[in-house]
Amino acid sequence: MGEIPHQHTRSIQSSLPKIPGLILSMLVGYSSSSEEDSEAGEVTATTCQSESCSQKLQEEDDDKEHFPAKKKPRIEKLVPQKRLPLPGCLLAMFPDEEDPHTENSSLHGGRIRSFKHERGNWATYIYLPYHPEEGFEELLEELLSMAGAKGVVLTPQEEFHLSLSQTVVLRHHWIQPFTQNLRASLANCKRFWCSAGRLKVYSNAERTRTFLGMEVSTGHAQLLDLVRVVDKTMTEFQLDTFYKDPSFHVSLAWCVGDLTEKMKEFLQELQSVIDEHEEGPFLLRLDCAELCCRTGNKSFRFPLEL
Fold it and tell me: Is 172 a catalytic residue?
């Protein structure tokens, strides 16, 4: 390609927008010595400006590094060096998922849970309370002493009752509807008396504890009627019902492990203490005036009609 005439070059330059001379010369392939000097000056100036900016930024960085020491503590005070501890009230609201104390059998006389402790699960059972009558405590001490002489150490029950249900797991949000359902079902149940006078040895389903109890001899039919009412509520909440052929009894004392066979060996000797009581055979009398429901640390009472 031949060179573009000089007169046409001026025409092209006037028609183009204002573009730096160095770029324009590259487009048309022509530049004068004066234009080259000018563009070189512009590039040098730009380079100097860049170097000046870089130097200024470097100076600013140096200034930051040499920030006066007296201002640093003021900034550091805004950010605590140590994490503040949570208040005790908040920690109590959110305990660990598994409480080691609840699973430690040594804290419960060696007793072992029938099911694992879980948050929101409430151990629940229904029963008739027994309030010890005159002479009961002395009789119980004599029975425990005789069992101890035979090599079986029994622990007396903390409270005495006659169970009308198995121990089941009730979710916390079921407590209110469960107790309301049970109260409505018991509305027409009548109050009655039952008695017990025969000693019997029992064990739990897991064979981890053995009990000495007194089996009911009168009032068995009325107790079965109550169980049917309780079972109805249990069924509606998909919980286990009571035993098909229950042996209603009041537990007197217990020990860890399965010692049913050993205790049966001297059970008749214990029974003689009951039969040869100073005022005649001792008969445990139970006033079935109200049912109770224990769920976790909550108790509900359901009075029966007179």
Answer: no
Q: What are the tens digits of pLDDT across the range 251-302?
A: 999 999 999 999 999 999 999 999 998 888 999 999 999 999 999 999 999 9
Q: How many CA atoms lie within 13 A of 33 on its CB side?
A: 0
* Cβ neighbours, 10 Å, residue 136: 16
CATH no., domain 121-303: 3.90.1140.10
pLDDT digits (tens, 9 = 90+) for 184-233: 999 999 999 999 999 999 999 899 999 999 999 999 999 999 999 999 99
> Among the options 8, 131, 249, 277, which is catalytic?
249
Residues 254/158, Cβ–Cβ less than 8 Å: no
User: Residue 67 and residue 280: Cα distance in Å, rounded?
Assistant: 100
Instruction: Give CA–CA dist 235/233, Å, rounded.
Output: 5
Residue pair 267/199 in contact (Cβ under 8 Å)? The answer is yes
Say what the pTM is.
0.64
Ranges of each domain in the chain? 6-65, 121-303
Is the separation of the CB atoms in 283 and 136 below 8 Å?
no
302/292 Cα distance (integer angstroms): 6
**Position with higher pLDDT, 110 vs 118:** 118
277 is known as an active-site residue? no
Residue of 6, 8, 131, 161 with catalytic role: 161
Of 193, 178, 184, 204, residue with least CA distance to 126? 178
